[in-house]
Amino acid sequence: MSTAVLGAMYEGIKHIFKHTFTMKYPYQKVLLPKGFRGRHLLYMDKCTGCGICAWICPERCISMVPVTDNKEYPQNPEKRFPQYWYARCCFCHFCTEYCPTGALDYTPDYELAEYDRELLLWSPERLSRPPTNIGEYQSVFHGKDGNQGVTFEPVIKQKSK
Amino acid sequence: MSQVSLSREEAIIGQLKARFPEAIEETKIDRARRVTIHFEKDHVQEIAMFMRDELGFDHVKGVAGVDLPTQKKIEVLYFAGSYSNAEVQDFIVILKAKLPRDNPIIASVVSVWESAHFHERETFEMFGVKFEGHPDLRKLLTLDNWEGPPPMLKDIKFPEMGQR
Amino acid sequence: MTTEPPSPGISISKTAEPSTLDVSVGPQHPGSGHCRILIRVDGDYIVSADPDIGYVHRGCEKIAEYRNYVSNIPHLERPNIADAIHLNWGYVLPIEELQGVVVPPRGKYISTIAAEMNRIMSHLYGLAIMQGVFSGHTTIFMWAFGDRDLFIELAEMLTGARLTYSFLVPGGPRRDLPFGFEDRLSRLLDYFEKRLVEYDRIFFSNPSVIARAKGIGVLKREDAKKLGVVGPVLRASGVKYDVRKVEPYGAYADLEFDIPTFEEGDSYSRYLIRFEEMKQSVRIIRQALEKIPKGPIARKAPLVAPEGEATGRVESSRGEITYLVMGDNSDKPSRVKIMNGSFRNLIALPFLVRNVHVADMPIIYGSLDYWPVEADR
Questions:
Q1: How confident is the model at residue A49 (pLDDT cuts 50, 70, 90)?
Q2: Smallest CA–CA separation between C11 and chain A, in Å?
Q3: Partner C contacted by A1 (CB < 8 A)
Q4: Residues with Cβ < 8 Å from B84, sequence gap 6 or more?
Q5: How confident is the model at residue A141 (pLDDT cuts 50, 70, 90)?
Q6: Domain total for chain B?
Q7: Which residues are within 8 A (CB) of B139 and not within 5 positions of it... i.e. 6 or more apart?
């Protein structure tokens, strides 16, 4: 009984000397793996406007809208492209997988909050912007099998070790 | 499905048919470990008692309703399973009874299978099936002030969710 | 008052004793979702309890009739975000049976690895919040939640999402194991096995935890069978029943593992059974990483299912999940029925929360690892 109490106390006190686990989020961002399902990226030069993405979408957040710009899209003469209503999107990315021409892609952007509800409607032009979110921190085990604790370290620093 | 002998499934069907020659209407072996039995609704408690005491099916995994508007029927499904009898532990026996759609009433099996308690309450709420003899047949999931027909029936449509 | 009620779902509105008081517990979020329990107390003892669920009912089964088979996957796994892959897998199995699609062996192994990782994550969530916080143990909450994040990182690497994976579609998993995944996972398992020893010392062998949980809420074996409870709750009462053994799906038939059981059936053994299951999950993942064959991961499955019905079941972290899927030659199911562990374990709550102290109720609730959203669907 008393040894069990002491064992529990020892186990807790031992952790004072270990590395702290917490990552300081807005200042440090985690490195997201390739294929992370963030917001969508649209390649307008590949999209044929077939609408399979809108058909497979479970939340029906995709609608096909015509685009009014001066560019020519030979593969898409009607100039119809998907538009995302991110208030409903569940980020399953079935649209990306079922796209027959590979016009949709994954991005690591997840900070999609807006002050205005209308801004959650992403037009095809806005969807084709390149991703902006770059994280560089990754979990690292210290000591043998992590008995010194786990921290989040920048990936570049980790490579130089 | 692989070619395995389905003797265990046939044995269960044979026992049930021998005991209830009139009540069992149709039987089917869906695949290995799955048996579907259509029965006449008045014999639900006897069949449940026989299943529990003689065959070792001591609990239900769920009670489901299925609306069949073309046949004007509501089907009640009991998914019986076993913990006690090691030989049929891996089985799901689906007992099906068809009720008239305008007045679906069937006897409750809570006195036999206590595990059916909340499942029957849910089926009562979602399909309007009245389980006679249920100790506490109240609404379970929907709002307290929700009025209207049972929501899982096929003629309750939600056009905003799309075409059906 | 002490007579045995006919059924555990006791109605609270009937015949109140003058000395009793009705208390509503909830419907605030007690750790895993919104749910209310109406309890009738006599002094410090609970006389009867009546779970009033449905606060997070979304009509999943009705929505499923409006969406096609693939589109149903994301919303059918939402009821339990801690255990998404099992809800997903249970839905995919009957569709594959209807369509006659057979998943290639590599796909089965990947699904098994993902599912066992998810089981560890779910049990860590249960250990952190349902068992740690509810018994007032803040340290295990921080530790288990921190270690869960390392598994989430790897799940993110494999599936692309932290919790809502939508990873399995009819035909197989959506992605192959990414480059470097096996190394990172086996390194994490080495770390996690050391952590399990520390969990044992600070939580499971801790006399203050044992004093709170041991002998509280005893569910005897016969009662467990009668009430039809599933999963860890059933196995803590001494019934050896696990879908991974009785009807092996995925790659479980090739892998060696034990089904831990306890005889006591009290809250403490329900705590311990999840601890033992995490050890078994580590063992399963190790074997699967070793044995994983090469080859294709998925077959192409049609978007339409033929007429018929199929039942599929998997062993989720909260017990057996059985799905009934009925097809009608279209791209939408005509009926989907979900019978999940939380809804089936709900019946044990009014049964156990009877003649116990009010302060013991959170312990019993936490030991059941009840997830209201999964039960409400």
A1: confident
A2: 39
A3: yes
A4: B56, B58, C225
A5: confident
A6: 1
A7: B121, B125, B146
Q: Which residues of chain C does A58 touch, with a Cβ-Cβ cutoff of 8 Å?
A: 67, 70-75
Nearest by CB to C227, which of B89, B115, B136?
B115
Residues pairing with C22 in the sheet: C40
Residues of chain C with pLDDT under 50: 1-13
Asked if residue A83 lies in contact with residue A121, where contact means CB atoms within 8 angstroms, the answer is yes
Q: What is the pLDDT of residue B54?
A: 85
Rounded Cα distance between C231 and B61, Å, is 12
Options 3.30.70.3270, 3.40.190.10, 3.30.1330.10, 3.100.10.10; CATH for A40-127 is 3.30.70.3270
What's the whole-model pTM score? Answer: 0.89
- Cα dihedral sign for C82, C86, C89, C90? negative
Closest in B31, B64, B140 to C324, CB measured: B64
- Region B100-125: mean pLDDT is 89
Q: Which amino acid is at B109?
A: V
Does a structural domain hold residue B75?
yes
| CB distance B95 to B78 below 8 Å | yes
Whether pLDDT at A125 is above 50: yes
- C370: its two tokens: 């009840």
Which range, of A1-5, B112-116, B152-156, C319-323, averages the lowest pLDDT? A1-5
Mutate to test the interface with C, among B71, B118, B161 (most CBs of C within 10 A): B118
Chain C residue nearest residue B81, CA to CA = C228
Looking at residue B38, which CATH number applies to its domain? 3.30.460.80
Residue type, C261: T
Structural domain includes residue B64: yes
Of A8, A33, A35, the CB nearest to C206: A8
Cα–Cα distance for residue pair C319/C322, rounded to 1 Å: 10
Domain span at B143: 7-161
CB of A10 less than 8 A from some CB of C: yes
What domains sit in chain C, N to C, each tagged with a CATH number? 60-345+358-376 (1.10.645.10)
ipTM score for this prediction: 0.88
